[in-house]
Amino acid sequence: MNTPGFNQDLIAFLQDSPTAYHATAEMARRFSEAGFISLNERDSWSLEAGKKYFVIRQDSAIVAFTTGNGRFAEQGIRMVGAHTDSPALKVKPNPEVNSKGYFQLGVEVYGGPLLNPWFDRDLSLAGKVTWLNADGQMQNSLVNFKRPIAIIPSLAIHLDREANKKRSINPQKDIPPVLSQIKKGDDTPDFRQILSKELEKNGDKAETILDYELFFYDTQPPAMVGLNEEFIASARLDNLLSCYTGMQALIEAKDTDQPCLLICNDHEEVGSASPTGACGPFLRQVLERIFDTHDEFVRAMQNSMMISTDNAHGIHPNFADRHDGNHGPLLNEGAVLKINANLRYATTSETSSLFRQMCKQEDVPVQVFVARTDMGCGSTIGPLTATELGVRTLDIGLPTFSMHSIRELAGSEDAAGLAKVLTRFFHLEKLLP
């Protein structure tokens, strides 16, 4: 794959995906353009060999798959998994705050973000809104203000002399964004009225805003960074980088006879326990509708493999001691095998061996991450999917800096390389012994 063209399209995808809802809609649009057929979970399905399909659940998770020659039990399914959500600030149900004449919105912390980088950023707002039309019918719409409408100002150093030494953040009182000033004698703005006006710009005439799931995001666009453009800087690289890479690989695998699948779950950042999360039944229920019998399902899973793709911690030049000396991945040195003795990652010697072999065949470098023995590590959808389906699983990721910050950093060579390997994976006639 052409790396410059790949990265420019990746940047466009990131820019169009400020929330899990928008990322899912963008993937659905791209799959449709590539000839995938949209399915509805409420309908009866009649799947055909040699066809391509996708299905969305609750607007924020997607499964796309190809049926290949239809011999699921004998060949299994080559599966790739990622997640659509990222740490963020989520607007509360009754958010309006009037503090000293400034209009602010109360927020909850979604997931585990680095909070310091959220200060002094030009913020916008996007997400999903549920509303009633003039006939009393309930509808859902995606909304994206796009323009900067809010900011979280820092407290000046003169008023907090210890800020550079021991600053702590109280998420209840320190981070409500400022949206505007309220003139003396005026009422505090009604946030739902603001949403109604924004929906109207898209032709949605909401009589009543019932509720919403809205997230602030940084309006600074993704960019190629570095003297030689060695890096990609963007919000939500964790884990839209993997969503995009898996999507591109599945679209490129258009000539394979093997059944293939991509799942992008929601809610990984908050534990995955939801109808759209990896702990939920979404993937299993889709798979059960692909197979004719439970026996075929079980047989197929034993002939299948899942590659869970979620970003890895690149070794930071200023904090190299936070890594095990023999397992410090470098940006632009290839995808990372993620291994943990306590099964926080689902990688086994078999699944990692297959990945090493594919990387060698595609002339793509591969690295390994193991956390320091005296430090914990995060987890992914890999162990959850392996537990739910009984399928052999591999955990990999692209090395990044600033994970869970409002702006993360990845190598500009790594994503295109991983897409090549995943495309080869989708073409494999035989998986594991």
UniProtKB/TrEMBL annotation:
One of its GO terms (molecular function) is aminopeptidase activity. This is M18 family aminopeptidase. It comes from Parendozoicomonas callyspongiae. Keywords: Aminopeptidase, Hydrolase, Metal-binding, Metalloprotease, Protease, Zinc. PANTHER family: ASPARTYL AMINOPEPTIDASE (PTHR28570). InterPro entries: Peptidase_M18, Peptidase_M18_dom2. Pfam families: Peptidase_M18. NCBIfam families: PRK02813.1. Its EC number is 3.4.11.-. Its cofactor is Zn(2+).
